[in-house]
Amino acid sequence: SRSINLAVVPGDGIGQEVVAQGLKVLAAVLPQDVKLETKEYDLGAQRWHRTGETLPDAELDSLKNHDAILLGAIGDPSVPSGVLERGLLLKLRFAFDHYVNLRPSKLFPNTATPLAGRPDIDFVVVREGTEGPYTGNGGSLRTGTPAEVATEVSLNTAYGVERVVRDAYERADSRPRKKLTLVHKNNVLVYAGHMWKNIFDRVGQEYPEVTTDYLHVDAATIFFVTQPERFDVIVTDNLFGDILTDLAAAVTGGIGLAASGNINPTGEFPSMFEPVHGSAPDIAGQGKADPTATILSVALLLRHLGHEHEAVRIEEAVAADLAERAPGTTRTTDEIGDALAVRVAS
Ligand code: IPM
Ligand code: MN
């Protein structure tokens, strides 16, 4: 479309800094005739301290009207663990039915990784985003006593599994290698694990061109490090996907480069794009954060909105920037954003 009405949620810590660079590159890459409108939302730790609110209904309603959401990072040590995660980030993912959490991993040139010099790594994790142990389905009895009992139930529905598995098959089918790996733990988690595997096999019959594989999650972590080139598209549940994508980021150039999209494929709700990394309060406000993950998330955002050409421009700019950066030097957040803005504009 010829206009983008973007919601911006900078959030906490380095979120502000990296989002500013993401917007800079977005403005630089868009052709003149695409009108960009942005609205910033004051959500996160400061808002919570001020008003006790995490995501009021008014904001949720207003966010619904945007084409997409760009989010920086959520979380601060001054807020009890879980308050912002559940009350803001997960609330957005659930409210906007972001059932595909898309997390690509590419080995960019010249990056500090234990896998440098290895064959090309280019896979994408399709992490389920609305179910699993993330639904808050649990409880604690005799809390704080030696007799405490806590449960944290993983919720899996056939509906929820089938739609994310189908999305993963579609993605695999459209990639050159056409390979899809299901990651679960069905030797122990037999109820959810078998349901995932049955649905995976059944839906697979509709995609005869896609080669399939199954791995237990523990084995998958080994292959992420020893044979990452074996992966093309991976589909997995919410928690396994959370863990695997941090590992994927670590082995393919660091968390500073890992982008993600929380996608609502039906288009009923806006999709939300964010770096995989957190708010990094230890380095916030110092210009030390690498904005590249956010800038690559902007590329995913553009692709989702149909601006494929601009998405590719950003990805190529990042690849060129990393390939040509002077070894041993460090750049500020701003400098990296400026360098990428110049590259995408030229
Ligand atoms: C992520 C984060 C979140 C998650 C947290 C902050 C709730 O780790 O986006 O990967 O677990 O999904
Ligand atoms: Mn995570």
How is this structure best described in words?
This protein starts with a strand and ends with a helix. It has two domains: 1-105 and 258-346, Isopropylmalate Dehydrogenase (3-Layer(aba) Sandwich); 113-122 and 167-252, no CATH class. It is built from eleven helices and twelve strands. The protein is globular, with a radius of gyration of 20 Å. The protein is 40% helix and 20% strand. The chain has helices at residues 15-29, 45-51, 57-63, 83-95, 158-173, 190-204, 217-226, 238-251, 292-304, 308-324, 333-345; strands at residues 3-11, 35-40, 68-73, 100-106, 122-128, 138-141, 149-152, 179-184, 211-216, 233-236, 259-263, 271-275. It is α/β, with parallel strands linked by helices and 346 residues long. A hairpin with a 7-residue loop joins strand 6 and strand 7 (149-152). Bound molecules: 3-isopropylmalic acid and manganese (II) ion. 3-isopropylmalic acid (IPM) is lined by residues 75, 85, 89-90, 242, 276.
Give the gist of this structure.
With 346 residues, the protein is of the alpha/beta class. The chain has eleven helices and twelve strands. A hairpin with a 7-residue loop joins strand 11 and strand 12.
Instruction: Please name the CATH architecture of the largest domain.
Output: 3-Layer(aba) Sandwich
Largest sheet: 10 strands, mixed
Which compounds are bound in this model? 3-isopropylmalic acid, manganese (II) ion
The DSSP helix count reads 11
Shape: globular
pLDDT < 50 runs, ≥5 residues: none
Which series of helices and strands comes N to C? EHEHHEHEEEEHEHEHEHEEHHH
Helix share bin:
40-55%
Residue fraction in strands: 15-25%
Class computed from helices, strands and strand pairing: alpha/beta
* Overall strand count: 12
CATH topology grouping of the largest domain:
Isopropylmalate Dehydrogenase
- The span between the termini is 23 Å
Task: Trace the largest sheet across and list its strands.
Answer: 2-1-3-12-11-4-5-10-8-9
GO molecular function: 3-isopropylmalate dehydrogenase activity; magnesium ion binding; NAD binding
GO cellular component, one term: cytoplasm
Enzyme class: oxidoreductase
Subcellular location: Cytoplasm
